[in-house]
Design a protein that fits this description.
This protein is an alpha/beta fold. Strands 9, 10, 11, 12, 13, 14 and 15 form a seven-stranded mixed beta sheet that branches. Strands 8-7-16-18 form a four-stranded antiparallel beta sheet. A four-stranded mixed beta sheet has the order 29-28-31-30. A hairpin with a 2-residue loop joins strand 1 and strand 2. Helix 16 packs across helix 17 and helix 19 runs parallel beside helix 21. The longest helix has 29 residues.
Length: about 850
């Protein structure tokens, strides 16, 4: 039984007898006075799991259901849940629950990623604390330690995912190094290798000196830093002049093999084809013309160091230049740098080279310069671009298939602007370095002949003789595959590929992929390429791109800086539903957004409001089983017809918003209905003119619509109502359009509501909140109005006054005070509205200030409308 509770060491298992006691409390007729999420969330999730309905094969009428599937972006097995995960999980769970309730066979495939470099670092750190190095114990023993660590700690994030209410099919859970997925990885690699799309070669890669491995682009953080731009004179070998070269890394000039200028730059046209003398070393290097050079950078001439810059490597390829590796894998200068510099760190060498340039008079000048510096996101050390022999995937053929699919609109991307972004990236894609110098991960299925070093791709050690030399002894490549390689197969490997399973035939392509824009290129693009190559179909029909979660100042959250918010403690403090709601309220597809504890607390208040409304409804007498809902059923027919029309309208709007991935708009409609329509108006009218059958119907329908967003509290209320069928599989019916009569009911009630507000203002501001008796000059429901406003109606003398289009007779003093207040209030709101509109349109104001100003302006417009015309 997988049930969680808060404990000293995080999520712990709740004993079964405790679960049964908690579950029993939810079946009581009366809700507790206050909502305590920690009392209900654990037993509810346990009941969901026990029902088996997370598995689409166990849903009622499962065989007749239309498939809907989502593959969860697998979080790292090493990590703790963060708000980025929580946002992913919330939006995917909303979609899964929505489609499950609509009658689809909703499958949400969960899983975790082995996170090669992150996990290896974690285990190595633990070993070092015990004075042990992985090199001392060897690969096999080290991997045993990793698997033991994964078994002990790796399930923590799964329990945290469950804590957020994720309705995944845990019977289909996967880990990227499960045997079935390992088979998929090897199958994919061997096919790419056999088809000539995998090759071994030397290229410049991002090298982490601390972890001694090449890393992917995603694992590189680019930071703007203050540095120095040095201008160095390179003398022309024929003595006809000099070329000044600007660089931020003078230490790498020891590996220069050319100076490059733009072919259209007239300043250097006469020098192209000549040679220059490399300062300090005295080597001659050519001057080449290449369009990749930016003539506006520095002096317009750049040094070319092919072994330590990817752009320089490309220039060297085009001009057939040699490559000199002057920085080694340990981050120190190599023998190629010269005896004077060998063994120095790059920073030590930089100081020595600059000092030497000054001595020989080759340093023209130096100036402050802000530039981008690459850091390893794991070790926080500066990345060294190094020439290294690695395994690569030829991505151009794969990208061509992806581009055709995207341009043919076989995949919808929400929001659409990311389609062009992805197309541009695929148009300029570079070959993908897939080998990592790690021990933890999928080891490359490449074997080398021990005699001639010829490579052979095989699942296991080749038993045949080497084709080149006849030797029959082989050794396996030490490297592992980039984690993104296995993740690129995720949508179909988790459904059984390379076997042609029932799940694969039924649920692939998956329906939706939900993810952040930050991994659009590194993961999403690769999944598209791999699926089209291996399956000849797209991996998903729709990609929903959400923004990144920022702190309340608009900065990227960071645990190290103390600006991160851990969702699990927040869930214990405010409830899981408050976390989920705070992640979708006020957000838009693809837009980064601010998050704060105050926002979470605000959504807790909404949950409390729902709880209190439900307590009132459930406390009413049990209504007949099938009330005549369409007829309204009581003397308060205006309000009844209005609330039914609003409920029909709400159902249609929420359904439409969810279909279009507009989660914030959907929850905005739901919250507005609860606060303004149900709580503020219909329940207040119900207290005066009861129609309990309709009240129960409204709340029941509302819980169905809210459930995908706030599953725990809605299920808790549903269970307390005595419902035996779980809310999570309650039917989400097809929405209906408002009839002409329903539209009229809405207009009639809007006039009635303005009248109530107007009479309340009249009593407060005209009669100074004292007892007020007036005479109505038209046929209205004075009894209900009196109960809602506290205004008395009787035959009385006075002057005429129009309130919300209705004529009344009031005392002269009351009339004068009220009209004076009305004029002042209208002027105040008009001034306030102009101020807020000006602030909202001020592009220099922070985003959160402008967003709040827009909301304030809308509220001011609403208040002005309630006051009526002048």
């Amino acid at each position: 039984m997988s049930v969680f509770r808060k404990g000293a060491e995080g999520n712990q298992v709740v004993p079964p007898d405790r679960v049964l006691k908690l579950s029993a409390t939810l079946l009581m007729r009366e809700l507790a006075k206050t909502y305590n999420p920690n009392d209900v969330e654990t037993p509810i999730y346990e009941r969901w799991e026990r029902s088996g309905f997370f598995n689409p094969d166990r849903l009622p009428k499962a065989k007749r259901r239309k498939p809907f599937s989502i593959a969860m972006p697998p979080p790292n097995v090493t990590g703790d849940l963060h708000l980025g995960h929580a946002l992913d999980l919330t939006t995917q769970d909303i979609l899964t629950r929505f489609h499950r309730m609509r009658g689809d066979a909703a499958l949400w495939i969960p899983g975790t990623d082995h996170a090669g470099i992150a996990t290896q670092i974690m285990v190595e750190r633990l070993l070092r604390e015990g004075g042990i190095s992985r090199y001392q114990i060897g690969r096999e023993t080290f991997l045993r330690h990793v698997w033991e660590w994964k078994k002990k700690y790796g399930e923590r994030i799964v329990e945290q995912i469950k804590r957020l209410g994720a309705s995944c099919d845990w019977s289909r859970e996967h880990f990227t190094m499960d045997p079935a997925l390992t088979k998929a990885v090897k199958t994919a690699f061997l096919k790419l290798y056999d088809d000539g799309l995998v090759y071994r070669g030397e290229r410049v890669v991002h090298w982490c000196v601390a972890d001694r491995t090449g890393i992917s682009d995603l694992e590189v953080d680019h930071r703007q830093e203050e540095g120095t731009l040095w201008y160095v004179r390179y003398e022309l070998a024929d003595g006809t002049g000099q070329i000044t070269v600007a660089t931020v890394r003078p230490e790498t000039m020891l590996g220069d093999t050319a100076v490059a200028v733009h072919p259209d730059d007239r300043r250097f046209r006469a020098a192209v084809g000549k040679s220059v003398v490399l300062p300090i070393t005295g080597r001659l290097v050519p001057v080449v013309a290449d369009a990749a050079v930016d003539p506006l950078f520095g002096s317009g001439a750049v040094k070319v160091t092919p072994a330590h810059d990817s752009a320089d490597f490309d220039i060297a390829e085009r001009h057939h230049l040699p490559r000199l590796s002057v920085v080694g894998l340990d981050g120190r200068m190599t023998k190629e740098a010269g005896d004077e510099f060998q063994g120095l760190t790059t920073l030590q060498c930089r100081e020595r080279v600059v000092e030497k340039l000054r001595e020989i008079g080759a340093l023209e000048r130096e100036e402050p310069y802000t530039h981008s510096v690459a850091y390893c996101s794991r070790s926080n050390t500066v990345i060294e671009p190094l020439l290294s022999e690695q395994w690569f995937v030829k991505t151009k053929p794969l990208a061509a298939k992806a581009l055709r699919a995207l341009r043919a609109k076989k995949i919808e991307i929400v929001p659409d602007r990311f389609s062009n972004l992805l197309v541009r990236w695929l148009d300029h894609i570079r070959d993908w370095n897939i080998s990592r110098q790690l021990w933890w991960g999928h080891r490359l299925p490449i074997w080398y002949c021990v005699a001639c070093n010829a490579p052979v791709a095989a699942v296991k050690e080749p038993v045949k003789r080497c084709r080149q030399c006849g030797n029959n002894a082989f050794r396996q490549d030490e490297d592992t595959l980039d984690t993104w390689f296995s993740s690129g197969l995720w949508t179909f490997s988790t459904l059984g590929w390379p076997e042609n399973t029932r799940d694969l035939r039924r649920f692939h392509p998956t329906s939706v992929l939900g993810t952040g824009w930050d991994i659009l290129f590194f993961w999403v693009a690769r999944m598209i390429m791999f699926s089209l190559y291996f399956r000849k179909e797209v991996p998903f029909k729709t990609i929903y791109i959400h923004g990144l979660v920022l702190d309340e100042r608009g900065k990227k959250m960071s645990k190290s800086k103390g600006t991160g918010i851990d969702p699990i403690p927040m869930a214990w403090k405010y409830g899981t539903d408050a976390i989920r709601l705070s992640l979708v309220v006020g957000t838009a597809p693809g837009q980064d957004f601010r998050m704060s504890e105050q926002k979470i607390a605000g959504q807790r208040n909404f949950c409390n409001k729902l709880w209190n409304v439900s307590r009132y409804v459930l406390a009413q007498p049990t209504p007949p089983r099938r009330p005549p809902l369409a007829k309204g059923g009581s003397t308060g027919g205006v309000a009844d017809r209005w609330i039914l029309a609003r409920l029909t309208e709400l159902h249609a709007r929420v359904t439409d918003h969810l279909k279009r991935f507009q989660f914030s708009l959907a929850i905005g409609e739901l919250q507005q209905f609860l606060w303004a329509d149900l709580a503020d108006w219909y329940i207040e009218i119900h207290k005066a003119e009861k129609n309990t059958s309709l009240l129960h119907h409204v709340l029941r329908h509302y819980l169905i619509l809210l459930h995908p967003f706030a599953p725990y509290i809605t299920e808790a209320i549903w269970m307390a109502w005595g419902k035996q069928k779980l809310l999570m599989i309650e039917e989400w019916r097809k929405p209906k359009r408002l009839t002409a009569q329903q539209k009229k009911s809405v207009r009639v009630f809007q006039r009635f509501r303005r009248l109530v507000v107007g009479l309340r203002n009249l009593k407060i501001h005209g009669a100074d909140n004292r007892e007020l008796v007036i005479r109505s000059a038209s046929a209205i429901n004075t009894r209900l109005l009196s109960q809602l406003t506290g205004v008395g109606f009787a035959q009385t003398q006075g002057l005429g006054l129009t309130v919300a289009g209705q004529s009344f007779v009031v005392d002269q003093a009351v009339r004068e005070r009220f009209l004076a207040w009305l004029a002042r209030e209208r002027r105040r709101l008009e001034v306030y509205l102009k101020q807020k509109q000006a602030l909202a349109s001020n592009s220099k104001a922070p985003d959160n200030i402008r967003e709040q100003a827009l909301r304030d302006a809308d509220e001011a417009k609403h208040r002005l409308a309630e006051l009526g015309p002048e």
